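Attaching the record inline, Q. Sequence:
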Amino acid sequence: MSVDLTKIEAAEVELEEWLVEQAENGVPEMVLIGLLRDYANDIEQLGYVPRMWGKSEQ
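Structure, as predicted:
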């Protein structure tokens, strides 16, 4: 499997922008850290990102 560094960098920028937006909107950093840890734990346990997470945005 080849790694597309451009896509990884774009995802990183999008995540950073989202985190800054949330913090600027008053979401405490500790809440954001907790969310990231919970999602990271879920992904680590499952070994993949559940595609159903994206369905709530449609």
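The two ends are 29 Å apart (CA to CA). The chain has one domain: 5-46.

More tomorrow.
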